[in-house]
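input
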Amino acid sequence: MVVATRRTSASPNAGARVRVAMSRFVVYGVTVEGPRPATFRTPPSTASPGLLIAAGGSEPLGHRFDIDTSASACLDGTRLWFADHVGAGPNTAEHLLFDVAVPIALTMLGQPVLHAASVGLGRDCILLVGPSGAGKSTLVAALSRLGWTVWSDDATRVERSLGELLAHPSYPCIRLHPGSEYLDGERAGPFAEYSEKRRLQLDASEFADGPGSVRGVVFLRGDGRLDLRRTRSASAAAQLAQQVFHPGGPMGPIERLSIAASVVGAVPTYELSYPHVFGAVEDVANRLREALKVSPDTTRPEG
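output
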């Protein structure tokens, strides 16, 4: 995901602001100090923050990027300034801040975030990659119903550590359409004013409590006959580069490709097509176990 970007000088912004009490919490595996989200839960943290969020006030000197026409953000060191434009709505503003601005800021700070879901068994996980509307969240919800652990339904921060590729949990929610068979009304909350989607709040037992070891990257190829096949790393890197959260700019394509190449160079890549019907979920899960390379009796760890 790429947005417009430019350098900026300090200037006030009169748009609507996210006005929430400041606190420390964890998103994408990073301690953040800023306005605590109202539409989803986040674990508290006492660690030193890796990112400071300033919602509103004067825009600082720094690297500015615009999110469509709905909001603007500016990264100055580890301080992320954010202001949504008039009429965006509080839920939309929160979505743009935590689902777009924060991932872009983390990528700029050398902690890349991919537009990819992540789900797995035990401490092993796979990345599910596809554009918006590809079915990432629905597939994650279906696998969660079967006992798989969720790291993220849309954006995953990745890290190379001691030769291993790690996925960090984002926050315990899955975004689903109102008619989804996986949406539990008692655990559903608002997403954004412009969308009918709802946030399904996950229990602690359903959500990863730490980084997972990535065993593969799976590109979703739409509705069709169930098929999981290996792909070539070069083409996978080019495709994954388009799914890196990045502010854009002249060096954007090179930086995105470098991040993508690092990921696909660490793990196998696959393409998955499958029938988007409720009854096919268990067959899809069995094929995805091939990417995880785990035994069929592996289940979500207790606690």
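quick obs: Residues 2-19 have pLDDT under 50 and may be disordered.
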